[in-house]
Each structure stands twice: as structure tokens, then as C-alpha cells.
Amino acid sequence: MNPTVLVIEDEVSLSRLLSRVLEEEGFHALVENRGDRGLAAAVAAPPDAVVLDLSLPGMDGLQVCRELRRRELRMPVIMLTARDAVPDRVRGLEAGADDYLVKPFAIEELIARLRAQLRRAGGPVERLTVADVVLEPGARRARRAGKELRLTAQEFDLLEFLIRHRGQVMSRQRILDHVWGYAASPASNVVDIYVHYLRHKVDHDHAVKLIETVRSVGYVLRP
Ligand code: CA
């Protein structure tokens, strides 16, 4: 699967060039010409990396970067700055960018830095989907019908475990062993309590219920 790179750049000639070269280099390139639209695109379908111009209409690059990080989107962000001004670079990195390039730059340099960042980030983002639930284990992010599910660490692990074993009935003991990772007493009702929390967050507002109870055995997540 080709890594997806979102280019947020308002200079049309540059964004077209970047898009073409990225595609030639084996990336899947998406382009947005405004900061606010770029942010919306990155939130709706998180790319594997973002190339972000500093000065943009709608919302500037620093703001876009801060908003991405605030939403816990941790994909590599390479900032493009118009001038080699130290404050801009520092502000870019402080806003959560991973690297920066000063315009004008060699496209090969950008490609090399992108590859380096993607290697560091561990390659393309893994996404697990069941029905309208999308889970990104790397970013520890979960959504249902496009809406963020605010899960605790344990709830996230439990949902990830159930999704990875979708359609298979999982006993309480197996869930305990895998999600909690300690030899808990079989009488412990921690699994039931967490399934209850998870149901409230995942299924409560939706007609289609994904988490099913299998009486006296455990739980199963069905698409
Ligand atoms: Ca610009």
C-alpha cells in the first residue's frame, strides 16, 4: 500500500509539482490549497504524512499543525517555510512539526526527508475497520461514523482486541489475559465493567450494536 501524503500548499504551481513528483515516487498524493480545508481533510481521513506550508489562507500552517497534534494525530509533518527565519523554524517545531524545509528547496530533499520520517513513524498507518468503526492502533485513535470515540487506554485495548478477533467469541479469561495481561481471578468482573463502559461509548448512540454478550461465555464483536 502506497503511503498517503497530504500536501497543504496554496501555491498552485508548487502543489501540482509536488503532487506529480510524489506520485512518481510511489506515494499517494492529496492536495489542499487552504489551511482549514487541509486540517479538515487530515482529520476526516488521516494521511501517513503531511507536507504543510507555513503561510496559508484560511488557517496558517502553525495553527494547522497545533490542531493536528491537539487531536492526537501524530503522523509526520514537514513544514515548508518561505524564508530561513529562525523564529519561523522554531515556532514550526514547537507547534509539533517533525521537520522543515526552507523554500526554495530541492524536491529530492523533500522526498528524502519524507521517507526518513515515514520510516521513523513505522510506515503507513494501520487501520482496523468494522462496520463504521475505524481504529488506528498507532495513533490510538478510534472513530465511529466519523465521530471521535474518547476511550481510556484500557477501553482502547479492549476494543482493539475485540476488533482483531471479530466474529470470534472471546471468553472473559482470554480477554483478561490479553488486555490486562495478568493472571486475574476468574471471578473478577473487570471485563464486564469495561465492556459496559465500552458499549456506552461505542454502541449507545447507534442503532447497530456491535458488542454482543454470549451468555456464560464472554463477548463477541460482530460486523
Ligand atoms: Ca503559502
Poorly predicted parts: none
Give the DSSP E fraction (strand runs of 2 or more residues). 15-25%
Chain-averaged pLDDT: 88
Distance separating the two termini: 24 Å
Count of DSSP-assigned helices: 8
Number of strands: 12
Shape: elongated
Computed CA radius of gyration, to the nearest angstrom:
21 Å
Could you say which structural class the secondary elements and strand pairing correspond to? alpha/beta
Q: Order of strands in the sheet with the most strands?
A: 2-1-3-4-5
H/E series, N to C?
EHEHEHEHEHEEEEHEHHEE
Bound chemical compounds: calcium ion
Approximately how much helix is present in the residues? 40-55%
Largest beta-sheet characterization: 5 strands, parallel
What topology does this entry show?
Blueprint: E1 4-8, H1 12-24, E2 28-32, H2 35-44, E3 49-53, H3 61-70, E4 77-81, H4 86-94, E5 99-102, H5 107-121, E6 128-130, E7 133-136, E8 141-144, E9 147-148, H6 153-164, E10 170-171, H7 172-180, H8 190-202, E11 211-214, E12 218-221
Parallel strand pairs: 1-2, 1-3, 3-4, 4-5
Antiparallel strand pairs: 6-7, 7-8, 8-9, 10-12, 11-12
The chain binds calcium ion.
